[in-house]
């Protein structure tokens, strides 16, 4: 066979791209593949390449990035919680197909697994310069602070990748709010333009802050304060309002997420007593799917409690109560943040047109910052990056918490 003649490093790269089911089938193909796949590298290390990771970002005038594999102590994968300190403000705008859309002085599309990245020119955008623009005042605990308001507006940016296409394209979509009217700004990485599509609603309702858009059924979906949805298809550039109703209590904490192909749109609402999971039905109603008893905690501690991730298979919360209960403990984190991102590694490549390539100095410090972040997120990295951070940054008002996971 031709594959038998491949250099070992190329064969490894091909085999590491396989899903577990395909890998099992390859073991039965011939003795050579079976021998390669019994290598320890395809044992405890392999699952960490394909399982999702939880990325946490805390940022003011400096940024602290954490990465945690979503595995429990019963798994053979390392539970190391890697961290990296960046002496600049960092924004993660989205994660899709193993790529990150991230801003650190420049706008990057990066693959932490391959360490490949592309610098994008964002000067043509109407929204991004406003979000990432510098301000002199930046108190992360002051809700009226300009930087906090800008950080909250990061959810206006959507990032989608379609790995099924041979062109391997990605698109960035920024939603622009104008009272009851919405416009959409689109980029494929080379240029920015306003879509001809305009959506006008009958009622004024802003987008929910810190609630990232969800990409399902070829559409980006933004959640509004009245619980309706704005849907936009980056390919057809069609937009529509999905009128939904939802009535949570004032102290409810909400996560907007994607579940599966059957019921892709999901709302997770958490109170001190229980967590409710709702799915969006065809009649545009949020239907209760299940309720889970919340972890036991005092009412004063609930303000530190957050639903941070859900993918239909597991639900992850962050809280500072470590009493034993039926939830799995994924490990601790010594920095509070409301910005979490699910990231699943892949070998998805980043293509770049040399004619539109953005040139920066080889010693640009922001490239070094990006490299640090990719090392933090790369599941194959064996470095103890926590030693490179400032220990004092982990203390004081940032506090500490624990991730807990409910397995379905």
UniProtKB/TrEMBL annotation:
Keywords: Membrane, Transmembrane, Transmembrane helix
Pfam families, per database record: F-box, FBA_1
Coiled-coil stretches noted in the UniProt entry, renumbered to this chain: none
Transmembrane intervals: 90-109
Ranges of residues in domain F-box: 6-46
PANTHER family: BNACNNG10540D PROTEIN (PTHR31672), F-BOX PROTEIN CPR30-LIKE (PTHR31672:SF13)
Protein name according to UniProt: F-box domain
Species name: Arabidopsis thaliana x Arabidopsis arenosa
């Amino acid at each position: 066979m031709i594959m038998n003649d491949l250099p070992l490093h190329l064969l490894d790269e091909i085999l590491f791209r396989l899903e577990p089911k395909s890998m099992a089938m390859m073991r039965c193909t011939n003795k050579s593949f079976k021998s390669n796949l019994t290598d320890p590298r395809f044992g405890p290390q392999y699952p960490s390449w394909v399982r999702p990771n939880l990325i946490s970002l805390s940022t003011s005038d400096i940024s602290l990035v954490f990465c945690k594999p979503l595995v429990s102590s019963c798994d053979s994968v390392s539970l190391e919680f890697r961290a990296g300190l960046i002496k600049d403000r960092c924004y993660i705008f989205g994660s899709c197909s193993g790529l990150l859309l991230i801003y650190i002085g420049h706008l990057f599309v990066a693959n932490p697994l391959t360490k490949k990245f592309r610098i994008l020119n964002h000067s043509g955008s109407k929204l991004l310069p406003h979000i990432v623009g510098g301000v002199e005042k930046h108190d992360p605990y002051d809700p009226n602070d300009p930087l906090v308001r800008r950080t909250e507006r990061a959810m206006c940016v959507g990032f989608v990748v379609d790995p099924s296409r041979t062109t391997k394209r990605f698109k960035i979509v920024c939603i622009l709010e104008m009272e009851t009217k919405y416009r959409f700004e689109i980029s494929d990485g080379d240029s920015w333009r306003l879509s001809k599509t305009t959506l006008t609603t009958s009622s004024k309702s802003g987008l929910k802050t810190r609630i990232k858009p969800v990409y399902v059924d070829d559409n980006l979906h933004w959640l509004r304060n009245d619980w309706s949805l704005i849907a936009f298809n980056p390919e057809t550039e069609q937009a529509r309002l999905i009128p939904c109703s939802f009535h949570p209590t004032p102290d409810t904490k909400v996560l907007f997420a994607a579940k599966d192909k059957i019921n892709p749109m999901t709302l997770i609402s958490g109170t001190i007593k229980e967590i409710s999971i709702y799915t969006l039905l065809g009649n545009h109603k949020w239907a209760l799917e299940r309720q889970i008893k919340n972890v036991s905690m005092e009412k004063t501690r609930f303000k530190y409690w957050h639903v941070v991730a859900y993918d239909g298979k597991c639900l992850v919360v962050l809280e500072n109560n470590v009493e034993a209960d039926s939830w799995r403990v994924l490990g601790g984190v010594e920095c509070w943040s409301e910005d979490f991102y699910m990231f699943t590694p892949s070998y998805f490549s980043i293509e770049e047109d040399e004619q539109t390539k953005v040139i920066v100095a080889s010693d640009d410090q922001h490239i070094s910052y990006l490299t640090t972040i990719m090392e933090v997120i790369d599941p194959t990295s064996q470095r103890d990056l926590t030693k490179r951070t400032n220990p004092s940054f982990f203390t004081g008002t940032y506090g500490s918490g624990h991730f807990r996971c409910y397995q379905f």
